[in-house]
Fold each of these.
Amino acid sequence: MIVILWIILVILILILTSRLAKLLFGFDYYLGFLIMIRTTKFIKYLDTLARAKKLLVILADIGIVLGFGAFGFDYLIKDKVKNRFYRFLIFIGVAFILTIITYFSTYSLLTNNPLISSGFMIFMVIFTGIMGLSGFTMGSLVFSAFDIISKLFMGTAGSACPGVGLVIPGVKMPKMDFFIPWYGWLILIASAIIHEFAHGALLRTIKVKIKSMGFILAAILPLGAFVEPNDKDLWKHKKKSIVRMYSAGPTSNTLIALVFLVIALLISPPILSYTKSIDAQRDLDIFVHSVESTTEVCGSVYDSPAYGVLDENDLIISVNGINIDSRQDLTSASKLDQNNLFVLKNKETGIEREVNLKPNEMGRFGFTSGVKEDPNFVIPGKYKFYKHTLAVIVWIAILNLLIATVNFLPTVPFDGGAMSQIIFSGYLKKKRKEEKRMRLVQRFFGTIIVILLLLNIIPYFF
């Protein structure tokens, strides 16, 4: 309840600052509490980007499939493949291919998590194949809602993990083991600007007039950017061009995420090798800092294999025959799917002993490690530079993927809301006018997502 009160207080402060900004500087506000600063200075750069029209269209089409899976692909080919049976076969084939891709790309995430049953894993990968990233995000909300409801009936909803939360860099999210460093603000702002520039470039490829561009602030904190087209001019164009325009934003974020993920994979081996060598020189002893009686993850309690077996301050000599000289050694030497042979030394008696530990279902041993560092060791400057550089690259990939998946959700105010209305209205009977069909699609997905979001915030009230 305290969390809810804080959220209400923050919103009230934002409402007050937005009104003051309107009164003092003439700035407009959005949603009642966000400040909008408009300008026309950057529109000329959109025309420069729009020259690469063919490339932009190809990327936007890829984004349509990425965001809406087999349905997205079917939308792109519906004007070329008139035979419904052939379209159906293509739909099944694309859904199957995307399902396989999803399975292998999310294998470690879904199969190594005991909270996710095999049945639900199958549902997630198939639903993603059919609905793309919008389906993956909705499926994740369904899973989280199911977990929260089941724990609500068991009386442990207060310890369940909420499925959604405010992403505030530098602030630990309540009830969630998720923390974004302060420089996440810079990443989010830059990603939002690129996102909106992508929308703007696609608008200019079809000659839609841009009334203004600008930035959105929460009080003095920049949240993102926006492009404001002439709506009447926009909806005069073909619906496929409009879908491409909405697709461009989250597609640009997905592309950024993939590029930086590849960069991280390429540079992480030499960086980790270097930092490991420095840690081995700096760290004198790795020891057992604390032992838990049980391990708890989102309200689910598991046995702690280390309880009653390891003692606090035990020195960790080796694991599976590998000498432990740093925390990185402990992480790399430990096997999460089999028994591990630990060689430990009692700090007081100096007696060594061997113990076998197999992680629990969550892949945890149930103890935390500590490190005794050499106070005389001077850490090289490039050690911190390399570690921070790798961390920044990884966070760029994570946050851009997060922006993309959320924006593909098939409801307003996300990009996927307008996309879904156009894509799915084509499957409804043509007896109704297109506007009515689009409203039906919006109500359908909007109702489902609102219900899922409400269910996912239940833990905040306990």
Amino acid sequence: MTISRQDALDWIKNVAQVLAENKDYLTELDSAIGDADHGANMTRGFQAVLSKLPTVSDKDIGTIFKTVGMTLVSTVGGASGPLYGTFFMQAGAASAGKQELSAADWGAALEAAVNGVVMRGKAVLGDKTMVDALTPALEAFKDAVAQNVSLGVALERSLQAAEEGMKVTIPLVARKGRASYLGERSAGHQDPAATSSYLILKCASETWANS
């Protein structure tokens, strides 16, 4: 089972749709501990991505991901642009020249993407950021691949870990980003970036389940 170039394109299109559908939800989460603009920013960024996809629809997967990343950097406001842009650009660098991705290839791309976010944002597990969803998702995927399960099962395990990590942010006190300014008052709220990261991985799992 592999992820084709069309699968990669379909994932990005589905992400744009799901983030638009969850725009108000993400804004509600961000209004509690941030600037109340995460939903709007992510939606705007991925709508811009949609307009760019036709220009790379015949390119390799690495180029597609890199284009997504560069578009997000230039269109998403605040810290989110560089962070999500880095995620996709690093995934693109790890996928350079590939017309399809094996489970191991996606694992390598995801690892590069998550490592890029960690380096860019200087966040670690427990800081109440997108890293709290992404890092468990990466580890679960790598463990699943090591057990030689199917791509679909590995993606599902990765998604479950991302969801658990997202929910773990609720009681945490933020140590990074705008939410950290609130100190103890940031506890009791789910992190919006961990939530959008979960939604992005959810789209990957659902889009690629039958690859």
Amino acid sequence: MQDIRIFAMQMYSTHCFAMSSKSRLFFLFAFLGSVMLQLTSTAQEKQDERKTLSIFYPSYSINLPSFDMNKRFGLSHSIGAGYTLMFKNNWLVNVEGNFLFGRNIKHADSLFRFLTTRDGNIIDQSGNYAQVALSERGFTFWLKAGKLIPIGKADKGSGLLLMTGAGIMQHKIRIDVSQNTAPQLRSAYKKGYDHLCNGPAITEFIGYQYFKPTKKINFFAGLDFTFAWTQSRRAYYFSEMIRPNEKRFDMLTGIKVGWIIHINRRNGREYYYY
């Protein structure tokens, strides 16, 4: 469009007095048409830029377990990251992953009841007490969709944020033996004690989002709910001396916060707003 406009201007200025009135009128309309097409194209590009916003965010949540999850673990934490596309009509699609961790393992004293001495210690290969640490480990992975409901006409990027999605949840008891000195808890033997479980899950989030692309402080915060239908993935539980066939219902209720990073592509270059 820029070349057409320049060409029309040159032709019009060079031959203006040598042409007939009809020719002058033709080139005048050609010049004005090229300008209008250029303006229309620019406006359309700007409109297209506003259709979809690309958002990356890191997040943190503190989680309270319920139902079967509460029988094995206590308070836990999660850190994660996600990528969101927010459309012009404030609908959102999202992909997110989280790493679960915690230190509160319930009934830990009975987990190694066939390995410990009377005072509750495990003897290592050197005849000393092995240093064993237990913790919770797991992850969630989600595909989500949602809606932002603006609060106030002036700020359309902030308001009530509602999200829902489906994915997978996994958790287990992490068994860490210092310097790996206890042969009873090496490699494959750990699998009889870690209670690895996973299965399909759904998530719900309700909270508030504050988002202005030109501002440095953009965030969301709210309540995050996880519902998972998990089952054991181990062939045998050594501590219970059973072949597990448990069907579990695990639930986490979390307070979640995230920092929004807006990624905007324009004219082949990238602009980042933090």
Amino acid sequence: MLLAGIQAGMPRPYGMERRPPWRSGYAKSPIGGCVRVRRENLDGDGQADLRHHGGPDMAVLAYPQEHYARWRDELRWPDVPYGAFGENFTVAGVTEEDACLGDVWRAGSALLQISQPRKPCRNISRFWHRPELLRLVQRTGRYGFYLRVLEEGIVEAGQPVQLVDRPNPEWTVERATAARSCASRAPGEAQALLDIAELGDDWRAHVARALRRG
């Protein structure tokens, strides 16, 4: 695997010409050179909605580089940049189909762990003024996933990413996403997901609520 790009950005207001305006840290710009990864953020990165974003289980958002070629072709968007999907790390050589919950990665001097899939929100469409984009992300399953920081460290674009440990090889990010979506129809699968110790608290709470609703 390769850390193909690193992006960060702080919250700022949008839509001031319309009402109501909104505030988001969705816009991410490339970082040249080294950056420190901390327990809850990269330096220079932040979230506006701390109820649904950020925190130790969602410290870093990763998105597969492989998806960009598909988006450029399918959306006729040849200049779509890394960071377009709000990610901090654009990672080559892994997708939701083979990344697993609990995977531990070494990137630079930082040690990171996949905590949960990403559940995209409407800001994807709102930011790019593409109403269909959120629906397409959901349909294709090109969500990305979150990393928690086990050891803070320094990273730089172009560095290799090493898989250090894989405690749950049967639980891909793709499978975890499906287990949440189908919790009412397949409660056994959802319960098995909750049994994974490395699952992030936000995802765990949503799955547990879906099971209680039946």
